[in-house]
Amino acid sequence: MRKDDWDPLRPYRVFVDESEVRGYSITAVCLRPSDAHRIRKTLRGHLRSGQRSIHFTKERDEVRRAVIDDVVAMPIKVEVYRSAARPRIARPRCLRALAEALRDGACQQLVLDRNDSVMQSDRRVLHEAFGSGWDGTYDHLHDHEEPLLWLADAVRWCWNKGGQWRNALSSVTLDVIDLEG
Question: How far is the CA of 17 from the CAs of 5, 56, 73, 103, in angstroms?
C-alpha cells in the first residue's frame, strides 16, 4: 500500500508490539477490519504442528522469509514510536503518542501484546490520552490469542535487525516517529 492510499478516516484496527532494542519502541500495525480474517488465516498458515504463535526471535530464517513475503503483500500501514528514555518512562510516552494519533481517526480497536506488569499503567495512559470521546476499544491479549499481533512482532524484529531484514520491508508503508528522551 502506498503512503497516500491510507485514509485515517476509514475504519481500522491497530496491533502493537514493543521492543527494548536500542532504546524503547512500540510498533503499531494498522489494518482494515475487512482484511483481518484473511490476514489471520495467512499468518496461521505459517504455524508448525502444535505451535500456538509465531515469535520472530524463535523462528528459522526460512519461516521469517515466508512470513515477510506475505506481510509485504498485505494492505497494512506501520508506525514505529521510539524513545531513548528508560522503558519505565518511554513506554507511557510512546503509548500516549500512539493513542493521541489514533484518537481523532477512525481506529475501532487497539490491541497490545499482554504484559501483566504494565497493564494498569497502560490503561491509565490510554484512558487519559483517548479521553471520553473516543469510540474505540483497547485490549491486552496474548500473542496466541490474536495472530494479528504476530504482524507487529515480525515488522518490529525485521526493523530492529536491520540490513536485509529491514530492506525486506521497503515496500511496506512504515513511518518512524522519534519522541524526545
Answer: 24, 12, 20, 19
Query: pTM of the prediction?
Result: 0.94
Residue type, 103: R
Q: What is the mean pLDDT of the chain?
A: 92
The Cα 58–Cα 95 span in angstroms is 26
DSSP string, the chain: --GGG--TTS-EEEEEEEE-TTSEEEEEEEE-HHHHHHHHHHHHTTPPTT-----GGGS-HHHHHHHHHHHTTS-EEEEEEEE-S-HHHHHHHHHHHHHHHHHTTTEEEEEEE--TTTHHHHHHHHHHHH-TT---EEEEE-TTT-THHHHHHHHHHHHHH-HHHHHTTTTSEEEEEE---
Residue linked to cell 496466541: 144
pLDDT tens figures, 21-53: 889 999 999 999 999 999 999 999 999 999 999
d(CA 123, CA 121): 5
What strand order describes the sheet that includes 76-83?
137-141, 107-113, 12-19, 24-31, 76-83, 173-178
Find where cell 476499544 sits: 137
